[in-house]
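lol ok so funny story. i was supposed to be doing the assay writeup but got distracted and ended up predicting the structure for this chain instead. priorities right. anyway since i did it might as well share w the group, maybe its usefull for someone
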Amino acid sequence: MSDARAAITQAHHREWARVVAALTRKFGDLDIAEESTAEAFATAVERWPADGVPPNPGAWLTTTATRKAIDRIRREAKRDDKHEEARLVRDDDPPESLGAIDDDRLRLIFTCCHPALAVEARVALTLRLVGGLTVAEIARAFLVQETAMGQRITRAKAKIKTARIPYRVPSAEDLPARVTGVLAVLYLVFNEGYLASGPDTDTVRPGLTAEAIRLTRLIHTLLPEDGEVTGLLALMLLTEARRPARTSTTGDLVPLDEQNRGAWDPALIAEGHRLVRQRLATGIAPGRYQLLAAINAVHTSARDIRDTDWSQILALYTHLTSIDASPVVALNRAIALAELDGPEVALAAVDRLEPHLAHYHPYHATRADLLRRLGRTEPARAAYDKAIDLADNPAETTHLTRRRDQLG
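and the output, tada:
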């Protein structure tokens, strides 16, 4: 039973996007693809514990989902041509040629990220259909209510259907303009894998981070001169390099200042640094992802937390705020500011962000740490309590609780 459950979880991480994409290509309908895929996984939950895990879980899920889709079309068909459409679909249909990139999932991403959709809808829809995240997980990533996110995804799928948005990779001349939305999607997918937002998920979901990196590599191969594609790939690699040290043997979250840097992946760090240097050598003004990658390059260049070049990090965050004035960027800049000008100056900067980040647990965790450093124990405890109340990931909650309890 436990083996089957583990296999289903693994298959969901690895196969969800493949199955949804394959069914979208076959049937041209995102609702049918998503719902039939969900039904296939529900069938797996019923069958695999009793029948055993199939030798090829992905093929089993695709076949089962295809049959569910055909049954759905036949039940809902109102015209003969719909019956004919279902009759003509075969499990052994020859695969279509996808042109430059032979990957259905990438086609699915570009479909979900079509410019006819609002940027928020593109990201949310792709996280659901490609990343396989729940509506609740996506809502937390966007800091919005779950019902509002569900409505956003439903409207996006309806718009794709009514506007007849094609399921294909854009032409070469259209690609650069379409990449921005795709990068936003991949970054959120990566972040969800690096620290899962749900209370019932693993702390880290390597399948999601690996998928985000894989697809970003594909886009980098397609657009090697695009600075932001290179920057995002470097950012992911430098962040992923720290993953082995990010959790303890008991599954607790380990913050950057406590990590064993010897456990970081040197190959990923070397590749990430090379990409950052490659972009710097162009002399072209960096974008958001390139600046974030440069910040991570500084962090991963320090052999010890005490060797960190905080002045360079602060300068990079200051540059970043000029192109991305979000309160989250300002919060991260304040953390660097604390290392240079002290916690009192940083706390004043953080407190100004309260109207924007009142329900964002890292805001309260940052305040708690600054208050702790200032010796203000009771306000620090209250801030930790607020952060713990808002945090979803169990490992993060454990870490914050430990920090709070260390106050005495």
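The CA atoms of residues 31 and 138 lie 18 Å apart. The chain is about 70% helix and 0% strand.
back to the writeup now i swear
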